[in-house]
Amino acid sequence: MKPNTILGTYLIKQIVFSFLGVLFTVLSVVFMFEIIELLRRASGHDEVTFGFVLQMAFTKLPKTIDMVFPFVMMIAAMITFWKLSKTSEFVIIRAAGVSIWGFLAPVLVATYVIGVINITLVNPISSKLYEMYETMDYRLKTRNQNAVLFTDKGLWTREAIDENKFLVLQAKSIRQEGKNLLFRDVSILEMDRNSQMIRRVEAFAATLDKKNDFELKDLKVFEAGKPTIVLNSVKYKTSLTLDRIKENFIDPESISFWKLPGTIRFYEMSGFSALKHNMRYMSLLASPFLLCAMVLVAAVFALRPNTRKGGVMFLIVGGVSTGFAVYFLSQVIYAFGLNGYIPGVLAVWTPTLIVTLIAVSVLLHLEDG
User: Fold this and answer.
1) Rounded Cα gap, residues 211 and 234, in angstroms
2) Is 137 among the domain residues?
3) CATH of the domain at 181
4) What is the pLDDT of residues 145-163, one digit of tens each?
5) Residue 293, in any domain of the structure
6) How far apart are CA 294 and CA 354, in angstroms?
7) Do 139 and 46 have their domain in common?
8) Which of 10, 160, 300, 307 falls 20 to 30 Å from 108 in CA-CA distance?
9) What sign does the dihedral 33-35-36-40 (CA atoms) show?
10) Buried b (16+ CB within 10 A) or exposed e, 296-312
């Protein structure tokens, strides 16, 4: 059945309205518990206002919802399918000659579109909000309302200049003032592809402004066979940006879907492992298909032509338990991928493929029955 038919449009509206209702309910419950937890953490902090707590709870909300998003879709699908079964609409649709696959097609299309919207439009907003949450959480821990999420442990980064040269940059401390980053005790090692030293640059300080101009101050340049060069100030060519440096201190979950490919290329060119970012990017690409798999699981438990047989509670518990089992196993396999025990592609896609194949097999058996 095509999604643009009258019946297809009706089924799409049903799943979308159920999804929005469940999502709003879960958001409300999660937001309430986040406020309670943050109020507990803020007790004894006289400088923390209730408005600050509300901002923290709001900015953390997308991160929490991202974890339970497949469950939201599964519960919405179960509610939709159960309503259609209870009102005998499912029986009428089947009696009209529509197969279970024709019935599910509009629902799966709507689910896939919701997943695409989530990663292309919602995810960039969620990533930005979670970045704001990390900054506010840092301010809560340090009791400094002007603190910025950087570190006093310094910065280490490796960067490829061209095919024959790369550099290793170290700064002992970083802080932000306005839109500029200030570095202290900067050391830059320029090396060739054989890791042989070309020259070393030592600077007392450096700044990175909003135009991404990296300027070294009070520096010395050391090069074998040449006298030491002392300079007051010089602009140094580098691909460092404020966002790149922030990415050294934040989780991949705080990076937008659209920025992840560039971040992955940057790390790979610099010689660092981009496994976490690669897996995060692949998991986002796989998320629409995971949502569709959860809808198929919901169909196995909630699509019943005869609702008079009872066992409703068993079906609900079975569906929810299966959802939790899928989530637990997917997290275990994902952890194996992060630790390098299995390839990242398998770690991301295996749970979705297994759940889809099992659900399709069960639905084929029910269809034949």
Assistant:
1) 16
2) yes
3) 2.60.450.10
4) 555 544 444 576 777 777 7
5) yes
6) 11
7) yes
8) 307
9) positive
10) bbbbbbbbbeeeeeeee
Q: Is position 282 within any domain?
A: yes
User: What is the longest distance spanned by two Cα atoms in the chain?
Assistant: 92
Reduced to 3 states (helix: H, G, I; strand: E, B; else coil), residue 155 is: strand
Same domain, 234 and 287: no
Q: C-alpha angle 255/293/17, rounded to 5°?
A: 80
The parent domain of residue 312 ranges over 6-144+275-368
Residues 20 and 50 in one domain: yes
Residues 191, 169 contacting (CB under 8 angstroms)? no
Output 153 or 300, whichever has higher pLDDT: 300
Residues 50-64 pLDDT 10s? 888 888 888 888 878
Q: Can you tell me the distance from the alpha carbon of 42 to that of 104, in angstroms, rounded to the nearest whole number?
A: 48
Question: Whole-model pTM?
Answer: 0.72
- Assess contact for 329 and 73: CB atoms under 8 A: no
46 lies in the same domain as 140: yes
Query: To which residue do tokens 């909630």 refer?
Result: 302
Same structural domain, 218 and 138: no
104 and 49 within one domain: yes
The set of long-range contacts for 43-46, using a CB threshold of 8 Å and a minimum separation of 24, is 45/140, 45/143
First to last CA, the chain: 21
Q: CA-CA distances (angstroms) from residue 352 to 285, 290, 333, 339?
A: 12, 5, 11, 20
Domain count, the chain: 2
- Quick one: 13 and 127 in the same domain? yes
